Amino acid sequence: MRTSIATVSLSGSLTEKLTAASRAGFDGVEIFENDLLASPLTPEEIRGRCADLGLTIDLYQPMRDIEAVPSDEFGRNLRRARHKFELMRRLGADTVLVCSSVHPLAVDDDALAAYHLRQLADLAQDFGIRVAYEALAWGRHVSTYDHAWRIVEAADHPALGTCLDSFHILSRGSEPKSLEGIADIPGEKIFFLQLADAPLLAMDVLQWSRHYRCFPGQGGFDVADLVRRVLQTGYDGPLSLEVFNDVFRQAEAGPTAVDAHRSLLVLQDAVGVSTPPAPVVPTGVAFAELVTPDAEPISALLGALGFTRTARHRSKPVDLWQQGEARVLVNTAGAARRDGTGLAAIGLESPDPAAAARRAEALLAPVLPRRRALEDAPLDAVEAPDGTELFFCATDRPELPNWRTDFTDVGHESGTPGVMGIDHLALVQPWHHFDEATLFHRSVLGLHAQESVDVADPYGLMRSRAVTNADGSVRIALSVGAAPTDDTVHAQHIALATDDVVGAARRFREAGGRVLPIPGNYYDDLAARYEFADGELETYRELGILYDRDPHGEFRHCYTVTVGRVFFELVQRDGYRGYGAQNAPVRLAAQHAGRPVR
Ligand SMILES: O=C(O)c1ccc(O)c(O)c1
Ligand SMILES: [Mg+2]
C-alpha cells in the first residue's frame, strides 16, 4: 500500500521534513498548514520539491471550526476555504482535512453541520478538491467517527467523505462493539486514513493526542485491528502517519522518518498486505563485545569476576574472555572509542543468520559489511538504533561461518565457573530513540516487549522496558532518561548469571574486585519487608547484595563498580522474572555517590 506521513510528525523545516520522508521511503506526505506558512518556499516550489523527491501531497490540513456555526461565521468560513482551495491548487493537493468544530458558537445540530459541509464540498468540487471530515475526540458536538460519518452520509455529496484517525477512534475505547460501525462506511467514502498509536495513559484526551502519540507498534492501541477493519471496507488510499509527539518534534528528522516507515512496514506485515521475511528469533547470547582504549582495568575486572582470557583474534587486538557460557570480547583496536570503555556489540545466536539479516534489511535496519578484513569469517550484522552492532551468530553450526574461528586459543582453560552465562544486557538508549529501540527489537529481532516501568534516579526518572525471547535466553533491558544523561552513571551493563551470588561476590572481592557499596538504610528496609534466615541479611549487607521477590521466585544481585561506561552485575535468579527494578533507585544513587569527581 502507499505510505504517507504528516509533516507535523517530523522535526525541522519543511524542506528537511520532506527530504527525511523521501529518504525513508514514504510515497507521500500530509502537509500541515503551519509548516507551509513558515516555509520560505512558494506553493509551486513546494510542489516541485515534492515531485523531485518522489512524494505526492496526499492531504492538506487542517481546516477547523467550519460547520454548525452561525451563518455570518459560516460565510467567513467559505471565504477562508476559497483562499485555501486556491492555495491547494497551486500545491497540487486534492484532499483537505476538516476536523470537527470546537468553536464556542457551534451548535449541536447535525442537519446544519451536514448542510454546511455540503456547501463546502460544492465549493471544493469547483477546484477539483475532496473534503475529508474527521471527528476530533474532543470535538464540541462531534467526537466519534460514526457521528462524523452520519453527517457525511446525510450531506450526501460526492466531494465529501470522512477521514478516520486511529487516535481519535481508539482513544475513546477499543471494544469490538465500538469499532463495528467502520464496516458500515463504504470504502470509497473513507477519503483518508491517519494512523497513530499512543501509550495507554489516563489523561485529558487533547493533551494525550498533542504530546504522546507515537508510531504504530510503540504504544498500547491495537492499530492493526483498526487497519484490518478499514481495509475490509475497500479503502485503498494511503496509510498515513499523523503523530504529534514532543520527542519526535525535537529529534533529528532522518532517523525518526526511518522509525516511522519501519512502523508501517511492520503494520502491513501484521495485517497481511505485505510479507517481509519472517523474523528469526535469537536463541541465546554468543558474546558481548567491549571496546576500550586501555585493556588493563577491564581485564582486571573480568579476571576478578572469574573470567579467563581463553583466545585472541587472529589479526586484531581483540581478546576473548570466558566463564561458563559467558563470553566477553575486549577490543582495543585503534578505532576504539576515545570516550572510554563501552559496550559496542552483541553476538546473538541465530537459527538462520542470513535470514535474520534479510528481515532486518527489509525493516530498514542498517546492515553492516559481512567482513571487516579478508581473513575474517563473514558474519551477518546490523546496527541497532543506539549504535550497538548486533551480530547474528551460528556458533554450533559447522556448515556456517563462525565468529569463533577468527580466534586462536591462548592455552588458558577457564576454571570452575561461578558464572554460568549472560543473564541479560542492559542498554541505556539515547533519550530520543527509546520508542524506536523497542519497536526495533520487537520487529527486527522478533523479541517480546514487556511493560515499561519507571525507575526513580536521584537526578531524574528512568523508563525501562525489557525485550526477551520466549525462554528468557535472550534478555535485553532498554532504558532511557527524560533528557540527555551522564554516561558514567547511566552506563550499559552486562548481567552475569550465577546460582550462588554470595559465593561469586565473595570470590570477586577476594580477587581484588570492588562491589558497589549499598547504604545501610536499604538493609534496614529489607529487614522490615521480608524475613531472612539467621545471618543472611548480614551477608548481603557485607557484600552489597540486593534482594527482590516476585510471584515466580527470588532475586539476589550485586554490582561491580563502573569502568568507563560499563559495569557488571551478578544475578542469582531463582525463578524470578524481573530485573530488580525495585532496587534500581538504590543502585543508581549508589552509582552517583561513587562517581569519580571531575
Ligand atoms: O490536534 C489537532 O488539532 C488535530 C488536527 C488535525 C488532525 O488530523 C488531528 O488528528 C488533530
Ligand atoms: Mg487526525
From TrEMBL:
Alphabetical UniProt keywords: Isomerase, Lyase, Metal-binding, Pyruvate
Sample GO molecular function, one term: metal ion binding
Record-listed a divalent metal cation binding positions: E134, D165, Q194, E242
EC annotation from Swiss-Prot or TrEMBL: 4.2.1.118
Domain VOC: 284-395, 421-561
Needed co-factor(s): a divalent metal cation
Domain of life (superkingdom): Bacteria
Family (UniProt): Belongs to the bacterial two-domain DSD family.
Name this polypeptide is given: 3-dehydroshikimate dehydratase
Record lineage: Bacteria, Bacillati, Actinomycetota, Actinomycetes, Kitasatosporales
